Amino acid sequence: MTPITEVEGRRIPLSNLDKVLHPATGFTKGELLHYYATTAEVLLPHLRDRPVSFLRYPDGPEGQRFFTKNVPPGTPAWVTTAQVTRSDGVSRQILVQDLPTLMWAANLVTEFHTPQWRTDAPARADRLVLDLDPGAPADIVQCCEVGVWLRERLAADGLRAYAKTSGSKGLHLLVPLEPTPSEQVSAYAKGLAQEAERELPRLVVHRMAKALRPGKVFVDHSQNAAAKTTAAPYTLRARPEPTVSTPVTWDEVEHCEHAADLVFLADDLAARLRLHGDLLAPLLAADQAGRLP
Question: Which keywords are on file for this protein (predicted)?
């Protein structure tokens, strides 16, 4: 019998709580749900008012994984949705506005991915993102080196960058912006990636072609396009270990010497939040928003 949990007055069936989802550590679905419940205070503001895309992995990272933007069958009537216009037409997507919706969605076993804009201003980005993706044998250590260069370059344009791990292999830089057309943000981000490649040719590539990437960091600027999404802060990732896309300090970035230095698991987050709070809170503050030059 599927247990029913009441969350803020909503009854939510939570299934297969003992199922192991992250085999390297034996991390179960029950532990996944506990993680999301205890990080909701910092996670929810980064999801709120953004149409969420789900990368689902109900049988763990070795099982089937599938990406969905549409409202899943069986979605409760109380879950908020929004109409979203895409290149292939109009659809409806989930908005994770509150704890009951977060726990219902987490029960589907999913990574949370969001665009750089909110539903009240579609295709007007309120943040810029640069996804630093290493090509082996490069790893996050090289991403950090590139990230520091990009931080200084952005600062020269009056923009302040914040960092988080991707939860996979790389590093994400995020910059709070006044709402700006996504096309304009995309063009600026591409220019930064190209400049980084010119200035750091031994480290950086700005094109996605795999043949160019071994030993270098791909500065992926494409996620600023209105149709693209990025792994949300604090989302678990579909990896053998329950790795989390974790905000980090610039001191941690500057002093990263080994890839393991910036790997954070679900069980690490409570202590980090007590120590740092939400390091990405400035992304949510209107008075922190910058303007593209």
Answer: Ligase
Record the pTM: 0.95
Region of residue 11 (phi > 0: left; psi between -120 and 50: alpha; otherwise: beta): beta
* CB within 8 Å of 234: residues ≥ 6 apart: 39, 42, 43, 46, 244, 245, 246, 247, 269
Residues in the chain: 293
Per-residue pLDDT tens listing for the chain (293 residues): 678 889 999 999 999 999 999 999 999 999 999 999 999 999 999 999 999 999 999 999 999 999 999 999 999 999 999 999 876 678 899 999 999 999 999 999 999 999 999 999 999 999 999 999 999 999 999 999 999 999 999 999 999 999 999 999 999 999 999 999 999 999 999 999 999 999 999 999 998 777 778 899 999 999 999 999 999 999 999 999 999 999 999 999 999 999 999 999 999 999 999 999 999 999 999 889 999 99
